Amino acid sequence: MSTGSITAWATALSSRVFERKAADTKKANLQEIKNKQVLNNIPRDPTALDTAKMQKDKLQSQFQGFDPKSVTPDQLTKYSNVLKEHGLISASTAGLLSTAGSKNKAGEKFNALDYFATQISTLQSGTSNEQFSNHMIPEYKRAINVLLNLQQFASSGASMSINTKA
Predict the structure, then answer these.
(1) Backbone phi and psi for residue 110, each to the nearest 5 degrees, phi listed first
(2) Fewest CB within 10 angstroms: 32, 54, 75, 105, which?
(3) How far is CA 52 from each of CA 7, 18, 55, 100, rounded to the nearest angstrom?
């Protein structure tokens, strides 16, 4: 093989790798935009988590520093188990939280809000059974609200405020 052939082959390979990376980046950017839209369109539900009961049970220290945008699957499982044991979330919500990010490497942090937003956008794309989508989308929305309320509680010990001015 001549030097010119090797250079041409390497250039073509490099070009393909660059194109693939550009396509992957474009796909990731589109998903990020979809996730932001999904998260912005979910109405906030301050009652998704009974933070008054959490305050009464002095649970804030167990969730100190909780950030749903940077959590490991093991941490999320631990948090969901505590919430379930105290009767603060249902078994189905605990199950969703426990399995989120399970495809990640052990100890690898992920954005749980983006995970659930991706699940919702996938179901909304119409590729799934409508009955399944109609059941799961509200469950994913509830999980997102639980995560947001938990983050608020962990950082301040307070519940999310309810806007009574409409």
Answers:
(1) -145, 170
(2) 105
(3) 67, 52, 5, 26
